[in-house]
Design a protein that fits this description.
278 residues; mainly alpha; two-stranded antiparallel ribbon
Amino acid sequence: MYPVLDLGFMEIPLYSLIFAVAFVAMIFMARKLAERFEYPKSDIVNVCIYGGVGILIGAKIMYFISKLPMIITNFEWYLDYFERDFEGAINYSFGGMVFYGGLIGAVAGAYIYCRKHIMPFTPLMDIFAPLIPFVHGWGRVGCFMAGCCYGIEYHGFGCVQFPANELIAELDDVPRVPVQLLEAGFNFIIAIVLYMLIRRGKMKAGQLMGIYLVYYTVVRFAMEMLRGDAERGSVGGISTSQIISIVLIPIGIVLIHGGWLGKRMERRKRATDTESEE
């Protein structure tokens, strides 16, 4: 709706501003949650820096991968585009960001930091499990303000009519599903649920991240059916994000099951110890 914040002397992209504020808020919340996991608060900021670099690199690479089918199909046009307008071709190839790429990049960045400084990685997954959807939810609000990641044509209750956007010519053609706000709402819900689970303190290591992955991948797979921006890439009628969702669901299940298995092993160990004492 409002792609930029006009201050008179400069314009600030609202998506970038909203995401930056949410990211900084995440750092403060992560430091607070670190106390519950007995994780060094001093390392949280550094982990976030590594993760932030990973977000940028991963999101850009995944955006390029989503463009590959179109590039391969129109390779001669793509080469000609590079010769005519190098900057425009680079923007076409890497001008957007894909959430899943950012998520994978953030995890990789955090893991690299933990390996480099010999820090435990699993507690980090649980610390950031509710914070990832928190930041992502605000990011989707930013998408709504910018008009990107828009929904399919829809004329029913809750439809939105975007104003003209010079960057997205077709955006204001028809009323659309406010898919960005729907996804933001689902992200905020799981963020609250995961935070409540942390406060209960009865989850095993990795389970929180597993719950998030299973929940979000299912939600994202469904949300993709309501998306109207075809440029995000697809293979055989399935979007790039849906393919990644299918891949990530088993990982989430393994993390959840690992927690349950750990509980069973702990109960069995306690029972064995009790028998030994008797």
